[in-house]
């Protein structure tokens, strides 16, 4: 019998991350509102900076420690650059956070309807993923606390949360942290923080400044419009950041990505425009869909750059998903996450939101 390498059982249990689709199942290209990308594109300053680097040499490695970028992040947020680590997207940091503190026999906790990467991160290091109940799609701090055991090592909390868009308040986050044993790492994933009017409304950066067991992650993929460059960052204690620095990939932020992210940080007007566009069209779209509530269509109030729309009437999420494909749009149908009755729709350009609202209205009231 031929021998082949066998994966560890916990690795074998991993289902690969499902990225937002950009085409229909038949390959038909569609307007993509399935990955929470920025409809305004990227900051022109960021594009110019990466182009300038790209025309130089690619023969040298980038700065392994992303010093200029960390310095600029620190200055913008008033935090110590020595306690910042950059990642190949915040996804790299979220993943290695579990590996740093959890392993076989340990538990990694997150809320039902949380970001799908958390389960992969937990399984990858051999820990047991534990899911706490939500409260009407929002994070339930009591349920999280009730799920903490002596085996819990890491808790992930996205704020705002993906795919629900809900926001946990500063008081609730502080209460969660205060009730945790010191050996549990609380990871606050702020991928969508720039879409909240006051970016640190939940106080996560303040918490990470003073508490040794808090890690905050951010990304350039959303409001900064640099999803393709794969840059994120984390902020925590010297202890936590030191460990993540040992685990992250060497030279993990490319030359062009460091240049683009640095320039994007300097173009806060672009971030402000992105936030304003999103707030306006998220509100408009949510109001439009609220007119369909007597047909069983509900929008979960969102603080992010997408909305979760529930279909609990005669028209199903499957039918709505197909109707939007027919209208030229691909959105996220998170049926693998227990949300077979919902669609997550990224806030796109004005014309897109108007077209989607009209298509859903026609479908539901036909
Ligand atoms: C909640 C949340 N966290 C983290 C990420 C990862 O983002 P990135 O790796 O692009 O920084 C995403 C991406 O969609 C997300 O939704």
Using brief descriptors, characterize the structure shown.
366 residues, alpha/beta, Aspartate Aminotransferase, domain 2, binds pyridoxal-5'-phosphate, 12 strands, 7-stranded mixed β-sheet, 13 helices, single chain
The CATH architecture of the largest domain comes to 3-Layer(aba) Sandwich
User: Which superfamily, in CATH terms, is the homologous superfamily of the largest domain?
Assistant: Type I PLP-dependent aspartate aminotransferase-like (Major domain)
Domains, number:
2
The SS-based structural class is alpha/beta
What does this entry look like structurally?
This protein is of the alpha/beta class and 366 residues long. The chain folds into 2 domains: 121 residues, Aspartate Aminotransferase, domain 1 (Alpha-Beta Complex), CATH 3.90.1150; 223 residues, Aspartate Aminotransferase, domain 2 (3-Layer(aba) Sandwich). The chain contains 13 helices and 12 strands. Strands 2-8-7-6-5-3-4 form a 7-stranded mixed β-sheet, sandwiched between helices. Strands 9-10-12 form a 3-stranded antiparallel β-sheet, covered by helices on one side. A two-stranded parallel sheet has the order 1-11. Strand 9 and strand 10 form a beta hairpin. Helix 4 packs parallel to helix 5 and helix 11 runs parallel beside helix 13. The longest helix has 23 residues. The protein is globular and about 60 Å long. The termini are far apart. The mean pLDDT is 96. Pyridoxal-5'-phosphate binds next to helix 4.
Secondary structure topology:
Layout: H1 9-12, E1 31-33, H2 44-54, H3 67-77, E2 84-87, H4 89-101, E3 107-111, H5 117-124, E4 128-132, H6 141-146, E5 152-158, H7 170-178, E6 185-189, H8 204-210, E7 214-219, E8 232-235, H9 238-247, H10 255-266, H11 268-290, E9 297-300, E10 306-311, H12 317-326, E11 329-331, E12 342-346, H13 350-365
Helix pairs in contact: 2-10, 3-10, 4-5, 4-9, 11-13
The site of pyridoxal-5'-phosphate has 13 residues, from helix 4.
């Amino acid at each position: 019998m031929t021998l082949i390498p066998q994966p560890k059982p916990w690795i074998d249990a991993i289902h690969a991350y499902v990225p937002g689709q950009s085409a229909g199942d038949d390959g038909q290209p569609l307007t993509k509102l399935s990955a929470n990308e920025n409809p305004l594109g990227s900051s022109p300053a960021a594009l110019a900076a990466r182009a300038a680097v790209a025309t130089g040499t690619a023969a040298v490695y980038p700065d392994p420690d992303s010093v200029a970028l960390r310095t600029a992040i620190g200055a913008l947020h008033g935090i110590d650059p020595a306690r910042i680590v950059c990642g190949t997207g915040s996804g790299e940091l979220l993943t290695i956070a579990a590996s740093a503190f959890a392993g076989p026999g340990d538990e990694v906790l997150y809320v039902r309807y949380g970001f799908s990467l958390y389960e992969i991160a937990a399984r990858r290091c051999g820990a047991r993923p534990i899911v706490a109940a939500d409260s009407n799609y929002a994070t339930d701090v009591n349920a999280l606390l009730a799920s903490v055991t002596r085996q819990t090592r890491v808790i992930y909390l996205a704020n705002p949360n993906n795919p629900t868009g809900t926001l946990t308040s500063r008081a609730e986050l502080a209460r969660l942290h205060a009730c945790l044993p010191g050996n549990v790492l609380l990871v606050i994933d702020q991928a969508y923080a720039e879409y909240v009017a006051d970016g640190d409304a939940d106080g996560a950066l303040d918490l990470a400044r003073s508490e040794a067991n808090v890690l905050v992650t951010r990304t350039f993929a959303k409001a900064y419009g640099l999803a393709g460059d794969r840059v994120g960052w984390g902020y925590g204690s010297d202890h936590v950041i030191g460990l993540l620095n040992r685990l992250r990939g060497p030279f993990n932020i490319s030359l062009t990505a460091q240049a683009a992210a640095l320039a994007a940080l300097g173009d806060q007007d672009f971030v402000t425009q992105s936030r304003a566009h999103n707030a306006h069209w998220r509100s408009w779209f949510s109001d439009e869909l609220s007119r369909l509530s007597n047909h069983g269509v509900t929008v979960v109030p969102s603080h992010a750059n997408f909305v979760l729309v529930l279909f609990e009437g005669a028209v199903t999420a499957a039918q709505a998903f197909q109707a939007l494909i027919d209208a030229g749009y691909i959105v996220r149908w998170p049926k693998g996450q227990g949300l077979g009755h919902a669609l997550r729709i990224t806030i796109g350009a004005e014309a897109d939101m108007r077209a989607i609202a009209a298509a859903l209205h026609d479908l539901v009231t036909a």
